[in-house]
Amino acid sequence: MQLPVVFLAGQPFAFGAIVAFVIGAVVGSFLNVCIYRLPNHESVVFPPSHCPNCDYQIRWYDNIPILSYLLLRGRCRKCGEHISLQYPLVELLNGLLTLALFWKFGFGLIFAIFFVYSSTMVVLTFIDLEHQILPDVITLPGILAGFGISFLFPEFGWLSSLIGILAGGGSLLLIAYGYQLLTKKDGMGGGDIKLLAMMGAFFGWKGVLFIIFVASLLGSVIGISVMLAQKKDSNLAIPFGPFLAGASLIFIFFGRRIIYWYLHIGS
């Protein structure tokens, strides 16, 4: 029997790409658990996955990423309650991000580090969109993890990571404090400050500058568009965490190329 072309010995990259996507989608299923439970201060391990409406314990064959949602037509097998589209969306998004990481780095230590990082950004994005919080249980260990990882890469260095932590957290802290002085309102939560400090730990101070600029640009364009579409005023609360997360992922995939292009404009 002839095997599909992607599994031929001459196509290791295609096979690796499939593996990467499947790994990302499977982990995405666990990310959904984190997104649902962490804001409620619940364990992400116990109890097993279940329907929030009827407490039906989800069987393994009903928990296959993306596919199970399609086969069940987006409803619980037992009670028929609608299952949020967020579940397959998170699985698909994480699968595609993992595929993109494999495409850029291949399997290895760098891939593993950014796989965990990007999965974390998915969790934080969806939690912030729904609850407008960024849990300390993720961001604070993330700062320590990023700083610890910096010791593994001499070309990056722990000093750059440390400066990135201070620059990331300090810059948003100053912005938040200045906004509060001018408007007498809280315009930015402490979670954003800790998140950018975490990003500084991973990417250093240069990464922080890039992320702040791109996140602010994205936030301005999308925020203004949403306000115009919904006919809201400037008091509309839009979480900044997703823009920071998106900007940091752009930095991973295109940051150095964009910075090089910018510095050489007109040269």
Give me the secondary-structure topology.
Elements: H1 12-37, H2 67-71, H3 86-105, H4 109-131, H5 136-150, H6 158-183, H7 190-230, H8 241-263
Helix pairs in contact: 1-3, 1-4, 3-4, 4-8, 5-6, 5-7, 6-7, 7-8
Short description:
The chain has 267 residues and is mainly alpha-helical. It has eight helices and no strands. 67% of the residues lie in helices and 0% in strands.
Describe the protein's architecture and organization:
Helix content is about 65%, strand content about 0%. With about 270 residues, it is mainly alpha-helical. It has 2 domains: about 1-130, no CATH class; about 135-265, no CATH class. Helix 1 packs across helix 3 and helix 5 packs across helix 7 (about 190-230). The N and C termini lie far apart (about 60 Å). Residues about 1-10 have low confidence and may be disordered.
Gyration radius from CA atoms, angstroms: 21 Å
Number of domains: 2
Strand content: under 5%
Taken from the alpha-carbon principal axes, the silhouette is: globular
Task: Write down the overall mean pLDDT.
Answer: 86
Individual helix count: 8
Going by helix content, strand content and strand pairing, the class is mainly alpha
Element order: H for helix, E for strand: HHHHHHHH
Strand count: 0
- Low-pLDDT stretches are 1-10
Distance between the termini: 58 Å
